Amino acid sequence: MAEMNFGGVIETVVTSKEFSLEKAHEVLKNETIAVIGYGIQGPGQACNLRDNGFNVIVGQREGKTYEKCLKDGWVPGKTLFPIEEACKKGTIICMLLSDAGQIAVWPKIKPYLTAGKTLYYSHGFAINWQDRTGVVPPSDIDVIMVAPKGSGTSLRTMFCEGRGLNCSYAVYQDASGNAEEKTIAFGIGIGAGYLFKTTFQREATSDLTGERGSLMGAIEGLFEAQYDVLRAHGHSPSEAFNETVEELTQSLMPLFGEKGMDWMYANCSTTAQRGALDWAPRFREAIKPVMEWLYLSVKTGNEAQIAIDKNSQPDYRDKLNKELEDMRNKEMWQAGVTVRTLRPENN
Ligand SMILES: NC(=O)c1ccc[n+]([C@@H]2O[C@H](COP(=O)([O-])OP(=O)(O)OC[C@H]3O[C@@H](n4cnc5c(N)ncnc54)[C@H](O)[C@@H]3O)[C@@H](O)[C@H]2O)c1
Ligand SMILES: CC(C)(O)[C@@H](O)C(=O)O
Ligand SMILES: [Mg+2]
Ligand SMILES: [Mg+2]
């Protein structure tokens, strides 16, 4: 573990330099890892663990996702089982069903969480809001978490490129006395770039805030607001899209991703810098009340309850797909389809 200075605050991080893959193998050598659920995180984590040489099986119900398991080389009866059978065989049970799905299957899974086993999560959701999820693990098992800070799709592609995705980790219950070491070993196994320590509570609240905020919800809201204003004032779709989205993702985001916001600013005109420096605090002040509202809605469990209620409905997937389709069909994102065809690499 290394102590590092994050903007003046010292925090502990773990990388494969301090905790090698060999050490992870040693820690997990007697474990059968049962990955339950094969949505987005399931494939990323299961395939990375398998490629890293761990003993992995998958538990997935039959249906469309089951076909994906077969395509990825999981073999029925050998490494692919119905959920309950995988839970019976596994010593580390990885809850990688959707957060709502985890509630539905909890009564079926609980009997297999016998003394000495480990219950693993990639989110603090089920435990942090256990008054709403009903997930109360038995006291004689370890309960641990490694939460990749990015999509399971990126976890896999970055692993295949020889890079790692950063992850947070936490121990909720340490029955074995060895839970933290096991958690870090697991993080190294799934291909974490580096691991930073958190709690189930802090991960759950920061994650739900981030995805509703700047990572997903706020960014779409910001784009729509600017695009709509430009269009209402007579700018063409291509101009509005280029000034709202395309330039950001293609030119400016890579600059601040690489060396920070001041570096991106420094590579723009002095006109742009003057205006952006003046307007950033105005946007901050306008947006902050919405951020406070969001954080409170997450912290009180309101957002978790909405996710549980909506995503437990039998037709939740169809409804989500319909909402994504509506987003895709907006003029802004349709303009984006054409703009992307004009990128040099697509010509
Ligand atoms: N999607 C991500 O990239 C991501 C990133 C970090 C953490 N997480 C966390 O990882 C966990 C898994 O998320 P995900 O996005 O991969 O899941 P997902 O929403 O894609 O889950 C789909 C899986 O759950 C199964 N499922 C859903 N309802 C079920 C039910 N009632 N019975 C049986 N199976 C059911 C599906 O068959 C499928 O295997 C969650 O805790 C999530 O918060 C996800
Ligand atoms: C990839 C995200 C947004 O970071 C994750 O939190 C999720 O829920 O999918
Ligand atoms: Mg999330
Ligand atoms: Mg997240």
TrEMBL record:
Domain KARI C-terminal knotted: 199-346
Start and end residues of each KARI N-terminal Rossmann domain: 10-198
Entry binding sites for substrate: 269
Protein residues bound to Mg(2+) 2: 207, 243, 247
GO annotation terms (biological process): isoleucine biosynthetic process; L-valine biosynthetic process
PROSITE patterns named in the record: KARI_C, KARI_N
Official protein name in the record: Ketol-acid reductoisomerase
Enzyme class: oxidoreductase
InterPro entries in the record: 6-PGluconate_DH-like_C_sf, 6PGD_dom2, KARI, KARI_C, KARI_N, NAD(P)-bd_dom_sf
Family: Belongs to the ketol-acid reductoisomerase family.
Cofactor: Mg(2+)
EC numbers for this chain: 1.1.1.86
Species, as recorded: Segatella buccae ATCC 33574
UniProt binding sites for Mg(2+) 1: 207, 211
Functional pathway: Amino-acid biosynthesis; L-isoleucine biosynthesis; L-isoleucine from 2-oxobutanoate: step 2/4; Amino-acid biosynthesis; L-valine biosynthesis; L-valine from pyruvate: step 2/4
